[in-house]
Design brief:
single chain, 181 residues, mainly alpha, 2 domains, 10 helices, 59% helix
Length: 181
């Protein structure tokens, strides 16, 4: 039996209904600067935004700049983020990312996806979250929930990989609906 995939028009109608039921202007991560968003987004892997929001105030207060986070003892970072899990890896990512921001990007968060993807701990989803929320640049972030729903709702084939889902959804939806979707 051949899998029926919804057309672009059908996908847009379903997405419109979802947006109407669950409107969202931006990520649920709390941040004030692009650097804070980047830190919070790295910490969001394998945990909830609420859990990230519980630890980021202390991170942002103690290490408000890439220079300060880069220079911080990794143990201090690890101790703060430990409740969220994967603390060893995430602490290393935060330090490596901060070092690269300082040394390569003049302490500025890049506004290009290819440059964001060079930073330790940054994958396609996080890069797209940064572009959309930090800079207002259209991007379509695919996390496990988007993957599962887009397959279950027949937006994409059931065997689609994350990168394929991103491409398909960006083709099926107009740019203005990439983030809210």
């Amino acid at each position: 039996m051949r899998e029926e995939i919804l057309t672009s028009e059908e996908v847009e109608q379903v997405v419109d209904a979802i947006i109407e039921l669950y409107p969202r202007e931006r990520t649920n991560l709390n941040y004030e600067t692009e650097f804070e968003l980047l830190v919070a987004a790295v910490l969001s892997a394998q945990t909830t935004d609420q859990a990230v929001n519980r630890v980021t105030p202390e991170i942002f207060e103690n290490f408000p700049t890439p220079e300060e986070l880069m220079a911080a003892p990794v143990e201090d970072i690890r101790d703060i983020i430990r409740p969220n899990g994967l603390a060893n890896r995430k602490a290393e990512y935060l330090q490596g990312m901060s070092k690269m921001l300082v040394e390569v990007f003049d302490s500025q968060v890049p506004q290009r996806r290819d440059e964001l993807l060079q930073l330790p701990g940054i994958g396609p989803k996080v890069a797209n979250v940064i572009l959309t929320n930090g800079f207002g640049i259209p991007a379509f972030a695919v996390d496990t929930h988007v993957k599962r729903l887009s397959q279950k709702l027949h937006f994409v084939p059931k065997d689609s990989k994350v990168s394929e889902i991103e491409d398909i959804m960006m083709q099926k939806l107009p740019e203005v609906k990439w983030f809210p979707a």
